[in-house]
Amino acid sequence: MLLSSLLLVPNVAHALTGQVNINGGAEVLSAQAPATVSVPINIAGSDPLNGFDIQVFADPTILSAASVSLGSVLVSPSIVIECINGILVVGSTCAPQDANGVVHLGAAQIGSLTSASGVLFTINYNVVGNSAGTPISFNTGCSGTSVSGDCVTISNGSPTAVPETDLGTTFANLNDFDMTPAFASLSTPAGVPISDVISYTAKGAFSDSLTETVTGPCTLATGSVDLSFPTGSDTLTCSSATNGDFPVTVTATGFSTSISHTAHVAFHVGPAGFSSTLNPASVTIPRGNSATTIVTLTGVSGFSGSVSIAATGPTGITGSASPSMVTLTPDGSGYSTATSTLTVNVAGSVGTGVYSLAVTGGSTLPVTVPGLDFSITAVPGVESVPRGGSAVATINLVSLGAFAGTVTLTASIAPIALDPGTGVANIVGSFLPATVTLTAGGSGSTAFSGGTVKIGATPNPGNTATGDYVATITATSGSISHSVTLTFNVEDFVLGPSYCSGNTQIDTTPDAENSPVFVGEQCNTFTMTTQTVAQGGAQGTLWMQVNALGHLQTFGSDGFGIQGGDPSGPGRGRAVPELHRNVCFFQTFFANGTEVPTAYLIANGPIVRSDPFSGCRGFGEAFPNDVEADPYVANNPDFFAVTANSLSNTLPGTYFVNVCGLFGTLINCQMVTLIIVTPPVVSQFVYTHAVSFSASHGGHFNLLVTNTSPTTIYAQVTVTGTGSTGDSFTLVSKIVKIAPNTISPTIALFLSLTPAMIGETFVFTSSIAVSATDNGALTGTSTLQAVSATFTVSP
Fold first, then answer.
1. pLDDT tens, 366-403?
2. What predicted TM-score, i.e. pTM, was given to this entire model?
3. In angstroms, rounded to a whole number, what is the distance separating the alpha carbons of residues 86 and 638?
4. How many C-beta neighbours within 10 Å does residue 434 have?
5. Nearest Cα residue to 451 out of 390, 361, 512
6. CATH code for the structural domain at 373-485
7. Residues 545, 498: contact at Cβ < 8 Å?
8. Nearest-5° Cα angle at 724, 722 to 730
9. Domain covering 273-369 in this structure, CATH number
10. For residue 139, which of 123, 147, 150 has the smallest C-alpha distance?
11. Which of 513, 518, 566 has the alpha carbon at shortest distance from 543?
């Protein structure tokens, strides 16, 4: 209900009870869907008003509301609420009763009251279904309205709604009729009449008398039909003294509705007889083979009797029908039909050409006997091949037209789109056998193989280039030659380049399983100290890139991706007691090139594997970031971590690690260098005494680092601290170069403090990141827990 406070008029007394109606209560009629129709919402005989709030419901599967338009009752209205099908158009919110099929409109005018007769508003509907009579009514479920229970509110500014009555209506667009002849075709001899029945059915609310007319040599029994009942009929009688085909049209028109429809009947006049048609109308049959066609016999003008079906033609081409005899029995239309299957056989002695068979009923069947030939197909026609493997297909040959002879196979292989720099196009095709002998009507096959080349486990210029190829396979026998193509892609992957750990974020193949990797500059060497993790050391990590080639697609996270580990080792790895897990090792070599035995690595290390966990192929482990390639992108980079750990007895020095990846039969490797150094030590750690760490002057740390290794190192010191009230700090020095068995220059770090920290006690410690090369982000870490102390911040 509209609030009277919005309408700004004084309270008035009710004198009349008017009516709010839909289309005056008259049925709303329209054409069948799709169409449009406008439905007015009226008011009549009511007190003057200055606003309304009305909801109208119609079945949305029949009438779909599109819009509303205000009528003329309100002089200068403003729309307060408009919701259509539960969707807010104007206003703050729809009412709880608003839903699909409901049109809700509320409007008001400011100032004086206005006449209470006329159109309040009009609903514009799209007609989306057909109905003989569906209600259009006022929505229910509202209270405090002009009509108890109905969502109809008329207001004149008083606190209560103006009392009214309401009246709905119905919608119909099925006001029509159908007319159907019993037979669409009639056939009779000259001078013999034949009858048909035209049936009528009313649709929806249609009720009218129909007037009939007819064209052609026919008459109607009554010429009219009363469709005040749902059905009716009339008899059509046709006759002609002359033979011929006569189109007949019966037209029926409503007396009061003027709705008109026609029915058409084909009328044939001629002597009784039959004819035949064929489906298919022609056949192609190689020598020594057969084919079938369906013979349909059609009787006309009341023909009745049994008919023998036969086919005659040249020597060597015969036809036999099943059944060989059919019976034609006419129905009331004068027509009759029957079918039979005709099998046509062509002897092996028939020459190439087009022949004719005469079929009972006057039909002629063209029979084509093709020349001697054969067909060729390849299975499969498209495939993927791992580099080093072979593209294989079965080549099938089939004799056509009684061909018999020896067929020779050859192949030419050409590149379509290759990955640059991955090798050469050196695929050679072969057949086993290279010739196939076909007998007349027989078939045969041979195996095609296109071998690719993969030399070793590292890139080689003699390898077959990855990418797309097409093999054209040609079969030849004398002057007859046919070809078929086989397309395939050669796929592989390549390892490298490698990157040190760093701060550059690289997002690998999008996958919920994968996180971004953080890399530094490109390098092939990484460093680790002899400290174990338990002693304060850290893992050494090198990020290696993997590129998919030739549309290679793998999914590491589900266990079918590129796997890491020594391909010569056991699938489930070896137990390393100090790591408390099984590990699949990479091949590791001393600096002199001697391979480190696996048993030695288990006991002494270093341990190098393809991820921070086991990396075992048998467990379905994959590189941490799986390798996936778009089918239409030749190169798709991804990354995996080469992780190193020292054990208690790991010796310092240089090691060479052969990092290998496996995918099915594909194996690729990349050699990297691991340098293990003796961890440097903080030989002097001088810091200002606790009373001198002040908010006004800050604090100072001075460190000296001793390189105890015979290798030059690069070191970076980090001092971290945590305060008693939750403050913390991290200080990081510049990278300093320290020669073997020498002490670094003084490493000075300054800490700024704030007045808010006065009285707070900090516990601090130092750690050293170390590398054998200066890569901007050092890869080995040695944490010396013994170098720690506290200070308290003074003013």
1. 999 988 889 999 999 999 999 999 999 999 999 987 88
2. 0.55
3. 51
4. 12
5. 390
6. 2.60.40
7. yes
8. 15
9. 2.60.40.10
10. 150
11. 518
